[in-house]
What we know:
Helices cover 32% and strands 20% of the residues.
Amino acid sequence: YWFDRNGKARVEWELHYHSRTRGFVSLLNPEESYGKSCAAFRWVRRHAAEFDLDPKRVAGYGVSAGGQLVAAAGVLDLPGDGIDGTSSKPDLLLLWSPVLDIADVEYYTKLLQGRGRNLDYSPVLHAGASTPPTCIVHGEKDAFVSLREVEGFRDRVVAAGGDAVAVHVGADDD
């Protein structure tokens, strides 16, 4: 962890959909990645006092597939949530071009290896009133993440009475 220029403590971790084993890259099942994500949020909460952090103010930040993992932690009932009374859900979602709709993503189906359905892990389908406050930054010319899925997530949260904003930046924006 370190302190940013405003004196706020920051803790970072990296999660991947793959792991290195004896020099070979093997794909992790997304459930394993979700488990690691949940464990990271629980770890920060359990160790908050050591870093002078408020365990009730833990934000999750993720880009692209990392945004999908953070959003999933915020909206899904994932394995490990509440272990030892410690929540694995972030209190705020900060997402940059997050993959929010994986319902029909064939690559994701392969990653699941028959251990679940895409619909069960698609954050846009589970967003609602209990979704943490969310800010999504999205590039209007993003070739992979559609404006529809970003706005769909935001609209579901807002329609349920939650707080969510989507900021769209274009190629000409500074």
